[in-house]
């Protein structure tokens, strides 16, 4: 019937070596080693810590994504952290919707 013909052993060997060479070439082009991913922390930093508050005040705009990437925490944890900072009075809500809220450092 129809279908693809079965390759000979020599043809399969050639294809495999060619594929291996291409992978090595790509790795050399990328340069260094790939970064090791670390899981994001679930525990939020202490909102009453002066070091953390000073770090927050250096940021122009505070979004959950920006805080999560800065402190290596999950976005849901970052949202809770920002709400705690707002209750303390360290930051102010600028704008927001049901999905995202934007804050700025309190002056």
TL;DR of this structure?
The chain is mostly helical. The chain has helices at 9-30, 50-58, 64-71, 75-88; strands at 91-96, 101-105.
Unreliable runs: none
CATH fold topology of the domain at 50-105: Arc Repressor Mutant, subunit A
Q: From the alpha-carbon coordinates, what is the Rg to the nearest angstrom?
A: 25 Å
The rounded distance between the terminal residues' Cα atoms is 79 Å
**What about the largest sheet?**
2 strands, antiparallel
3D architecture notes:
This protein is mainly alpha-helical and 107 residues long. It has a domain at 50-105: Orthogonal Bundle (Arc Repressor Mutant, subunit A). The protein is built from four helices and two strands; from the N terminus they run H-H-H-H-E-E. A two-stranded antiparallel ribbon has the order 1-2. Helix 3 crosses helix 4 (75-88). It is elongated, with a radius of gyration of 25 Å. It starts with 8 loop residues before the first helix and ends with a strand.
Main attributes?
single chain; 107 residues; mainly alpha; Arc Repressor Mutant, subunit A; two-stranded antiparallel ribbon; 4 helices
